[in-house]
Specification:
Blueprint: E1 5-12, E2 15-24, H1 29-39, E3 46-57, H2 59-70, E4 78-82, H3 86-95, E5 102-104, H4 107-115, H5 142-147, H6 149-164, H7 170-217
Parallel strand pairs: 2-3, 3-4, 4-5
Antiparallel strand pairs: 1-2
Helix pairs in contact: 1-2, 2-6, 6-7
C-alpha cells in the first residue's frame, strides 16, 4: 500500500474496476500512476475508476487519470469514472475533467454502459451510454489553488494533449506551463486582494454593529 493511497481491483463482465481508496496529491501522484499501470494487463480493454472511497484528489491526481484514460482512448476500448463523493465532484467539474471523461453515478451504471450488463439502479431502464454528474458550483478554495499552481499547469497540458490527441514538444510544454503559471499567479494575487478587502469589511462591519448596539443600550 502506498502512502495515503490504495487500489482494490475487480474484474466483472470483462471490465476492470479499480476502487481508489485514500487521497491523491502531488506527493503520491507518481505512486498512484504506478499502482494503476501495474494493475492493468495487456488484454484489458475497459477500465472503471470507482472513486467512492477517495478522500481527496488534486490536479496531479487528475493528470494521472488522463494519462491512464489515453491508454483506453482507442477503438474497442472504454474508460470511465464512477461514484464521485461530493468533495471530489467539485474539483472534477471545475477542472473540466468531466467534459472529457465519462462520469457515472454508480458502479452499476458504469458497468451497464461499458459492459452492457443490466444496471441495478433501475428495474427496466435502458442502458445509458453516459451519465454526467450534476454540475457543482464553480468554487475553488483559495488555499488549494495557491499551493497547486504547478499541478494545475501540468494537468492543463495533459488535458490539451488528451483533447487533441497529440503530444506537445518539451519546449512548447515548458513555455506553455510558464505561461499558465504566470496567468494563475495573477489570478491568485487578485484573490489575495479581494480576501483582504473582505476581511477589512468584516472588521468594519463588526465595529459598526458594536457601536450601533451600544448606542441602543445607552
Amino acid at each position: 500500500m502506498a502512502t495515503g493511497i490504495d487500489i482494490q481491483w475487480e474484474r466483472k463482465d470483462g471490465v476492470l474496476v479499480a476502487a481508489i481508496i485514500g487521497r491523491v496529491d502531488g506527493g503520491n501522484a507518481d505512486e498512484f500512476q504506478r499502482l494503476l499501470e501495474t494493475g492493468i494487463e495487456p488484454g484489458d480493454n475497459a477500465l472503471i475508476l470507482d472513486l467512492e472511497q477517495l478522500a481527496f484528489i488534486s490536479s496531479a491526481g487528475l493528470r494521472v487519470g488522463l494519462i491512464i484514460a489515453r491508454k483506453f482512448n482507442e477503438p474497442g476500448k472504454r474508460f470511465g469514472v464512477c461514484t464521485l463523493p461530493t468533495h471530489v465532484r467539485g474539483v472534477i467539474t471545475v477542472s473540466g475533467f468531466d467534459q472529457m471523461i465519462a462520469v457515472y453515478e454508480s458502479r452499476a451504471a458504469a458497468l451497464s454502459a461499458i459492459a452492457g450488463s443490466p444496471s441495478s439502479d433501475g428495474d427496466d431502464q435502458e442502458p445509458k451510454t453516459e451519465e454526467k454528474m450534476a454540475t457543482m458550483r464553480g468554487v475553488v478554495d483559495y488555499d488549494i489553488v495557491g499551493s497547486n499552481v504547478q499541478e494545475i499547469a501540468d494537468f492543463t497540458i495533459e488535458k490539451y494533449e488528451f483533447r487533441n490527441n497529440t503530444t506537445l514538444s518539451a519546449e512548447i510544454r515548458e513555455e506553455g506551463i510558464a505561461q499558465i503559471k504566470d496567468v494563475l499567479w495573477k489570478r491568485i494575487e487578485l484573490l489575495r486582494q479581494r480576501r483582504e478587502q473582505l476581511r477589512k469589511s468584516m472588521f468594519d462591519a463588526a465595529e459598526e454593529a458594536l457601536a450601533e448596539f451600544v448606542d441602543k443600550k445607552s
